[in-house]
């Protein structure tokens, strides 16, 4: 027995015996995956030509087509779009790592995150440098710049959280990641649809699909996650709550920041957000059918899995 324990203690950890060139290959591939995922997230904006949106506080009178190149659509009207662009990149990277399932998982995950961060940080520095160079001076411009920067940093943090959860071995954590990014992914797909079809030219069928896409994603994730063990019910609760709250939050932010009053009193803005949230989260807010669809898909999928499992036992 002692001899057996000695052999087990001496056995190297999985992946520890990999030669240096194999580790280097994994690192390089992980960085490449991160870079490509980061670019994929930004792609709906980059394909438009990536001109900075018109600014209310711009220092000079210019036509929209004369605005400079910007790798991010920096504008108070595009804050939810920025969240979608960033989180889509992180979610894509997490999915790629999960499908890859490398031996040195932790190293690969952080190298992939480094690739995503490299793209998003580069885009952020370039875009804010352009914005800072063109804004008129004054307190309002400073508040506007700082608010946008805080929003982009928060979106980058959300992107990394999506990557870490999505790349986890745990099915529950991966399903949780899908639920948290479902609404931003819906917005990201909507950006593609709008850019490809042109503003106002998206067909009713596509608009209907975009409306229900987050619910479908959440429902499929819940069906895949299942309800066993019982603690996975927490994932169901969080995902359904996110499907209810996040769209309302997006609507509130878009409405308040679209008032064209960047100098608005913060207390008044907070009051407006609370009022709109209360309206959109209420019975007439429209979130009920999407949550019900996600729950129905999840329960039906879980029941089907349980049926198949019992048939295999016979």
TrEMBL record:
Source organism superkingdom: Bacteria
Keywords for this protein: Membrane, Transmembrane, Transmembrane helix
TM helices/strands, residue ranges: 27-47, 79-100, 107-131, 143-165, 172-189, 209-227, 234-257, 290-308
Protein name: Integral membrane protein
Species of provenance: Pseudarthrobacter humi
């Amino acid at each position: 027995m002692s001899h057996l324990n000695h052999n087990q203690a001496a056995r190297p950890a999985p992946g520890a015996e990999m030669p240096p060139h194999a580790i280097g290959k994994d690192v390089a591939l992980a960085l490449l995956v991160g870079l490509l995922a980061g670019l994929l997230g930004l792609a709906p904006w980059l394909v438009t030509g990536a001109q900075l949106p018109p600014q209310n506080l711009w220092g000079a009178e210019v036509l929209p087509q004369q605005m400079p190149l910007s790798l991010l659509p920096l504008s108070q009207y595009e804050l939810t779009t920025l969240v979608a662009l960033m989180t889509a990149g992180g979610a894509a990277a997490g999915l790629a790592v999960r499908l890859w399932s490398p031996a040195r998982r932790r190293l690969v995950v952080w190298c992939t995150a480094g690739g995503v961060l490299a793209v998003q940080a580069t885009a952020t520095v370039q875009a804010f440098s352009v914005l800072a160079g063109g804004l008129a001076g004054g307190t309002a411009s400073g508040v506007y710049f700082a608010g946008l920067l805080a929003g982009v940093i928060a979106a980058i943090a959300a992107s990394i959280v999506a990557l870490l959860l999505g790349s986890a071995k745990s099915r529950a954590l991966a399903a949780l990641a899908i639920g948290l990014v479902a609404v931003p992914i819906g917005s990201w797909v909507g950006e593609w649809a709008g850019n490809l079809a042109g503003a106002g030219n998206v067909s009713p069928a596509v608009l209907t699909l975009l409306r229900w896409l987050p619910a479908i994603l959440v429902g499929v994730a819940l069906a895949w996650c299942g309800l066993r063990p019982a603690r996975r019910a927490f994932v169901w609760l969080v995902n359904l709550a996110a499907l209810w709250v996040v769209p309302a939050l997006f609507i509130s932010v878009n409405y308040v920041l679209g008032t064209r009053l960047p100098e608005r009193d913060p207390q008044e803005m907070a009051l407006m957000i609370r009022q709109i949230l209360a309206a959109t989260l209420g019975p007439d807010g429209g979130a009920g059918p999407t949550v019900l669809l996600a729950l129905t898909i999840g329960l039906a999928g879980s029941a089907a899995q349980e049926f198949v499992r019992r048939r295999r036992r016979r």
